[in-house]
Amino acid sequence: MAGDQLNRNWRPKHNPWLIAVVVALAAFMEVLDTSIANVALPHIAGDLGSSQDESTWVLTTYLVANAVVLPITGWLSSLMGRKRFFMICIALFTLASMFCGAAPNLPALLCSLAIQGAGGGGLQPMAQSIMADSFPQKLRGAAFALFGMTVVVAPALGPVLGGWITDNYTWRWIYFMNLPLGLLALGLVFKFVEDPPFLRRFKPGEMHFDTVGFALLALGVVALQVLLDKGQEDDWLSSHFICSLVIIAVVCLSALIVWEWREKQPIVDVKLFKIINFSGSCLMMFLAGVVMFSSMILMPEFLQMLMGYTAEDAGVIVSIGAALVMVVMPIVGFFGSKLPAKYMIAFGWLLSAGGMYLSTKLLSLNISFGGAAVIMLVQFAPLAFIFIPTMTASFVGVPQDKSDSVSGLTNFMRNIGMSFGAAVVQTVLARRQQFHLARLADHLSAGNIGLTINFQAMALHAHSAGFGPFGAQAAVVAQIYRAFMIQAAALSFLDAYVILGIGSSAMFFLSFLLKSNDPKSTEAHGGP
CB of 127 within 8 A of CB of 28? Predict the structure, then answer.
């Protein structure tokens, strides 16, 4: 009992806020890389002599390797020790970044990205669990506010920074800039981070590698990630390739749960899902990833596709929303030490639902720069109220030595949610645009007198501009079709916001199922 009490009262030798900044630096570097390469794909394709379709594997390769490592970070931490594993991940990520920047062709780049993604997979969960164990529960919300900035702000800044680097230098500096950051983070972690005594380590001869579990995990996650990235591109279930991936993902991940439940040394601790707060937090993280990444996709795509904005201008608007998060995060962290997490989460989802509803009212083809910025502000502000309390709630009722597994699985759920959100958004936009185009086409009939008059007037104007009789009619038809396409596309964006609003409303009610934590507790964890 005395040993348990000593472990529970353990505190790091160095200032926990210094430790939080150090580990947040490593996490920020990794999260930034998940979005910074998006705008550089055309440059990468041109420089390496590959097609645009082939270059999209740059993103997929990184995400697949990252997703495979995330769920097993708890096991890897028990094998190597948390600090050692964290440093290995930083070193791998930094070294692979150098190889990415120097890659002579696409295959070399993809191999380097697989290593980089694997190394990056351990950075976010280890940073989160180090913060969780370095602070008492009453200060954990404030600490997670710092971590939350890396999760929300870094993906928003990525496209702007990536566009600036590729326009002014070369895409290779997207990866080369990780070298000084990685070396700095590696040195700081070595000096200031330490492993707490309660972390579980495999004893000599105790370690058993769960080969079957890892094989099921790798196959299932790879299939899931690839089908989410390529599903809309291949028209989902109409593609034999996508159908095969769905079958592989469902079979392997279902078998993984059954196998790991019975395994004595599981590579993924699925029994954590018996804890209602942990399973509820994973669901919250998944939906938060869907909403966050969808918001980052929808507005820039609307502005570039329908309003003629450049990628950099659209990125600036997203960055405005990210700047608000940086202001709100510390406020949420402060209230996290005063209020139970589930009430703050519910408030965040209520704000999110309201923000999506307001977005449907503000979004139009006449929207100004300021109006677009307001939409990003109302969509980003709720994320602080969702992410920080959810991270806090995920540790309630969980034993101290399971913190690494908790961090790995919650970050995995958020990343899968981001991929799922991107897939859903692209599918909704494509399908609903077709639907609205068909509805608008119903108005094209000879009996529509207003349309007939406008058609004749436009044809006369085209004829006076130099078109022949048939050419004038063809030009008018093309102009009307383009207008219909733009209007149908705009309506599809509104539909996407409606769906996100409905999802946010549902999560508001589910938030109250979480167990109330004691925000004033001085224990590192809310559980035994």
Answer: no
What is the Cα–Cα distance from 283 to 386, expressed in whole angstroms?
A: 12
Count the alpha carbons within 13 Å of 452 in the hemisphere toward its beta carbon.
Answer: 5
Give me the sign of the Cα torsion angle 138, 139, 141, 142: positive
Give CATH superfamily name and number for 15-193.
MFS general substrate transporter like domains (1.20.1250.20)
Instruction: Give residues with Cβ within 8 angstroms of 316, minimum separation 6.
Output: 160
Contact indicator for 120, 66 with CB cutoff of 8 Å: yes
d(CA 84, CA 407): 17
Output the CA–CA distances (angstroms, integers) from residue 61 to 57, 156, 161, 175, 407, in the order listed: 6, 21, 21, 15, 23
**d(Cα 344, Cα 334) in Å, to the nearest integer?**
12
Neighbours of 226 (CB within 10 A): 21
Cβ burial, residue 387 (10 Å; 0-12/13-18/19+) = buried
Q: Which residue spans within 229-320 are E strands per DSSP?
A: none
Average pLDDT of each block of 10 consecutive residues along the chain (528 residues)? Answer: 53 89 91 78 82 78 91 91 95 96 93 94 92 84 82 79 82 92 95 87 74 95 92 88 95 96 91 91 91 85 87 81 84 80 92 95 92 92 89 86 90 91 90 90 65 64 63 67 87 95 92 72 48
The tokens for 413 are: 């759920």
481-487 contacts at long range (C-beta below 8 A, 24 or more positions apart):
484/437, 484/440, 484/441, 485/433, 485/437, 486/306, 486/365, 487/365, 487/436, 487/440
- The CATH architecture that domain 273-528 belongs to is Up-down Bundle (1.20)
Q: How many helices (H) and strands (E) does the chain have?
A: 21, 0
pTM of the model: 0.86
- Residue 82's pLDDT is 93
User: Distance of CA 285 to CAs 176, 382, 408, 411, 441, Å?
Assistant: 31, 13, 12, 8, 41
Q: In angstroms, rounded to a whole number, what is the distance separating the alpha carbons of residues 194 and 83?
A: 6
Domain ranges of the chain: 15-193, 273-528
According to the model, what pLDDT value does residue 57 have? 84
Q: Are 145 and 329 in contact (CB under 8 A)?
A: yes
* Distances 386 to 1, 54, 271, 347 between C-alpha atoms, Å: 36, 36, 24, 8
Long-range contacts, 309-318 (Cβ 8 Å, 24+) = 311/39, 311/159, 311/163, 312/160, 312/163, 312/164, 312/167, 313/369, 314/159, 315/39, 315/159, 315/160, 315/163, 316/160, 317/369, 317/372, 317/373, 317/376, 318/156, 318/159, 318/160, 318/376
Tell me how far CA of residue 5 lies from CA of 198, 373, 400, 521, in angstroms: 10, 50, 12, 15
* Contact predicate 147/22, CB 8 Å: no
H/E stretch holding 214 reads helix 211-230
Residue that is written with structure tokens 């919300």 in the block: 141
Phi, psi for 309 (deg, rounded to 5): -75, 150
pLDDT at 473: 63
Q: Please, how many CA atoms are within 13 Å of residue 48, restricted to the half-sphere of its CB?
A: 28
